[in-house]
Please model this.
Amino acid sequence: MEILSNTKNGQQQNNLVKYEGVPITIEGEEWIIPALNIAQARQLRPQIEMLTSISIDSGLTDVQLDALITIIHAALIRNYPDLTKDVLETMLTLANIKRVISAIMGAGGFFANHN
Model:
């Protein structure tokens, strides 16, 4: 566990990060991205299975983007429960989404983590 004291989206955060994870910098702030828990993995199984057919480098459909956002949001709200999907969508870019999803899936042991 790690204590973070910084500003996220204009709001001061003094958080005890509840779950260990992979630190990733998004918009100049460090976020600790944990793995999905088992209940989340079961609930999100269709979206997780969709990841095998996604090639972020060759473009994403709206359905694929929604699946990625849903998985990323589920992981992040474990440590940042006030984070909304709307805010998350403004933070993520096509340049950082691959690192974030790799951190989540790598932390869960699904595939190697490539920051």
